C-alpha cells in the first residue's frame, strides 16, 4: 500500500511468488492514472447502458440504426488504420485462458493469433488474473515453458502465434486493487498491466500491443477505449496508433453500431468478431419483456445459419471490409474425443461452419483446441490461396435492415425437455468449474466458458417467464424447472464425485435463472460470497 500523487493505492490480494514483478509501484501508478482519468466516464456509460436496457424492455425507444450517426455510416471515404505487423493473416485464431499450459500450447498451436483471455475463459480469481499477466510477461520474453506430469517439457517454438489479449468488460471491477477505497475497473487492470509491462518489448519483437474488446454495447464505449489507448501511449512515450483493437460484436445494440464503433477506434481498429452465445444472451436480456415473439428455441437449434444470425454476420463482413478491417468468425468449441465416430461427426460440422464463414468473406475464425487448427486452416487456405485475407471481398450484395436483425421468430425450432435439461446440466457443470477457478471447462466434448452459463440459464429464465410449452405441450413452470434442476444436480453430482461446488452452483443457478430478475451470474451476490479476497 502506498500514497502517491494525492491518491491512495491499495492491493488487498496476496502478493505471492513473483506477483511483485507485475504489481510494481510504477505499474500501479499507471493503473491509477488510467482509472482516475476515466472512472467517471465509465460509470456514466454503465448508467446509460441500464437506461437503454429499460427503454428497450419497455418498448419506449425501439432499437434501430442511429439517425444522429447516419453521416458516419454513409460516408464511404473513411477507413481504419493499416493492418499492423503480426495481424496481416488471421485465418486461424485460438482462444483460451492465460494459464501457463495454455500459453505454451496456444503459441505453439499453429494458429496465426492467440486470444489470450482474461475474460470469459478465465475465472477471475486474484491468482488467475495476476498469474496470467506473469505468463504473458514471460512468453513475450521467450522465457516460459511447461512440463507435464509425465515429465515432458514444452517450450515456445520459432513461429509463435501473435498475442491478442482480451481484458474483462467495462461492467466488472477488480476488487483486489483499490484507489482511495474504490475498486479499479477490471478492464483497466487487465489492459493496463499488460500494456505497461509489455508494449515496448512487443514493439522490439516487431509486433505490438493488441487487444480484443468484449461486451461493448455502443460506439461511446468504443470512444472511451480509444481515449484510454491515447492516454496509455502518451504516458509510455509510444507512438500514437501503435495499439490495435478488435471488437467483439456480441451485444444486440452493438450490432446496430458497427460502423460507428470502427469509426471511434479507427486509428487503433483492427477488426470485428462475430460471437454467438453472448449475442443471443444480449438479445434475450434486452427484449425479455416483449413476450413470445422473442422466445428462442433450444440453444442447439440457434445456429449461425438461422436468418437473424446470418443477417448479423453478413452485415459484419460487409461493414468490416468497407472500412479495411478484418472480419473474424465465431468459435468452434469442439474438443477432440477418443471416440473416432464422435470425432468424425464433429469435425464435419466444424468444417461446414468454417466453409460457411470463409465463403461469406470472413478473414479468419476461432477454435478452442489445437486439434481444430488444421481443419480451420485447411478451409481458409482453400479460399484464401496465397492471400492473407479477403478484404477485397466487399459484399456489396448485403443489405440488412433493423427488422432483419430483430427477426427472432425466423429461428423457428422448438423448446424440448432435453433442451431445458441440457441447459441446466451444462450451467451447473460450468459454474462448479468456475467457482473452483477454471474458466474454460471441457463439458460434453465442448470447451465452455462464461458465455455458456449466461445463455444456458437466461434461456431457462425466458422460457419460465413466458410459460413456454415444451414439445409435448407441457408449459415450463418454475416448479417444473426446479424438478429438472434437482434431477440434473443429482446426475452431475454422481458424475463429478467429491470436492465439487455444486451446492453453490445450484444456488447461483436459482438466483440467476429462477428469480424475477435476470442478473449476470458474474455480478450477483454469489460472486462476492464465493470468490473471496483470499483467492
UniProtKB/TrEMBL annotation:
PROSITE patterns, per database record: MALATE_SYNTHASE
InterPro entries listed in its UniProt record: Malate_synth_C_sf, Malate_synth_sf, Malate_synthA, Malate_synthase_CS, Malate_synthase_TIM, MS_C, MS_N, MS_N_TIM-barrel_dom
EC number of the protein: 2.3.3.9
Pathway given in the UniProt record: Carbohydrate metabolism; glyoxylate cycle; (S)-malate from isocitrate: step 2/2
SUPFAM superfamilies reported for this sequence: Malate synthase G
Domain Malate synthase N-terminal: residue ranges: 10-69
Record keywords: Acyltransferase, Glyoxylate bypass, Transferase, Tricarboxylic acid cycle
Domain Malate synthase TIM barrel: 162-407
GO MF annotation list: malate synthase activity
Lineage: superkingdom: Bacteria
Residue ranges annotated for the Malate synthase C-terminal domain, each copy included: 415-528
Top EC class, one word: transferase
KW Repeat (keyword) present: no
Entry-linked PANTHER family: MALATE SYNTHASE, MALATE SYNTHASE 1-RELATED
Protein family (similarity comment): Belongs to the malate synthase family.
Protein name: Malate synthase
Protein species of origin: Amycolatopsis melonis
Gene name for this UniProt entry: aceB
